[in-house]
Predict the structure.
Amino acid sequence: MSVLDLAKAYSLISYETLKDKLHSKTTTNISDEDRKILIELELNGVAVIPKYYTKEQCKAIMAEIDGMITDDSIKKWTDKESSDTRIYGSHQYSKNIMSFHTDPKLTQIGESYTNCELINSHTLGAKLVPKDNNLGSGEGWHRDSVYRIQYKSIVYLTDVNENNGPFEYILGSHKISTIYNSILVNKFNAHQNRIEESQIEAFLKSNKQLEKKVFTASKGTVILVDTRGIHRGMPIKEGNRYALTNYFMPKHHFTPSVKKKWKELM
Ligand SMILES: O=C(O)CCC(=O)C(=O)O
Ligand SMILES: [Fe+2]
């Protein structure tokens, strides 16, 4: 089966890569500082920008998220443990969040990384609280997509330690070779984007050059990430975690059906 899965993954990844090439956009005038971030993103699949927002900015946005949570006219999503409350369209209700949504620096780094013109379909405003058996933000280990390149930017609005549901990433797992390896060696399916804890252990054992990294950080820190790589939000044990996430995607991926899918959640 794994050879068939490999062939399927290879053809779909090649097809998506070719489409991206046909829609490619070259970015110019990237600053030296942003180039360093880009190099890190390319190497590990993730890069951090500390102190992107001040404590005051974080506090103001958190208060706005709290206001949205108590506003019955605003659409929300919650997981079944009631640990993760999400406002997918939070940028529609706040000027501060809108400025994160349209942030030119975060967009330009993403366009340089993907070599595509990006659309930011929405900015998620989310609050995590500890509840028994919560799986964390994103509900366990996964790749957002196996076949397509993905780019998101997250800003923590609260200090995030090991117990506050930090973002966790397998460095280097954005590389396409790791997808082929996981199919051949670890017997993943071609389209497998959800990964059990035991499969993560097996994957790390057979990919000794890769390692997990937990992104604990102060409020105001931005994490740029290729979410094709394997990641999760760790289960939250104490405190709370507020964050914004920009859902960027290449413009040609933002088809009417994709647009409709996200609109329904807003
Ligand atoms: O919020 C997080 O820590 C990660 C959630 C996630 O899986 C994602 O945004 O793709
Ligand atoms: Fe994800």
